[in-house]
Amino acid sequence: MQEFLQYIFSGITNGAVYAVIALGFSMLYGSTGLINFAQGEFVMIGALSLISLWKGVNLPLPLAFAGAVAITAIAGAMLERFAIRSVKKPHPIVLVIITVGASILLRGVGMLVWGKDSHGSPSFSDHAPYDILGATLLPQSLWILVLTLGVVLGLHIFHKRFLTGRAMLACAISTKAAGIVGIPTEKMVLLAFSMSAAMGGIGGVLIAPLSMSSFDMGMNLGLKGFCAAMIGGLGSSWGAVVGGLLLGVLEALGVGFLSSGLKDAAAFVLLLLILYFRPSGLLGTASVQRF
Asked: Does 176 fall in a domain?
């Protein structure tokens, strides 16, 4: 029971990070219909920017947190402005290939800026770990859970209560119709890319104290976030949370009771099962086409 509870704590912690990354995928897809495969590199930028601002420049943690997320959001805006918007024939396959190329470019920039060495970050608080029924719960895990819940609730309120959030959803349904009624579609797409990148930056900030950060950390985390988004239902914020937590817990249980080699395989096995039995995801809605 003690080991099982420890695996659950570890899985929920990792799953919450996956959920924030998945939120970036789902939010961008729900607003623009595009899947950004450079999302993992935004996680890398967020983590390394936090370390540079917090431990390098000695900024207070809240300012370093906000600065790291802002830097990542600016990187996302630059990707949309100079790479996505400049495409004359924005076919979905072309845009996906552009995001893959952007991923490679950002990874190279990360190597030039922060080098090939791994960088560590202390926890957000110095509180001792909590002992719960013999299992250890790190304070950083609580930070991750609370901040993840806050991000999900904030994003939900933004899309449901604010006019700008509704305008972004309208652009996803039909860009032409949104433009006809006066919605500035280009600004909405730019905002969607910035917010999606910010989600990745938040994920990087949260995971930085738990593992060593390096220029190539984004690929694996980006794939896990994409799997979590697909499992929960691409385009659904709450689906991203459910998919991330489910993926994290199953990974931890697989590592603990079966083999550590199954950690990365579990995500893709679970994704294949979900796509086979429920292609729209656990909380996603099936698309309807009228002819």
From this structure: yes
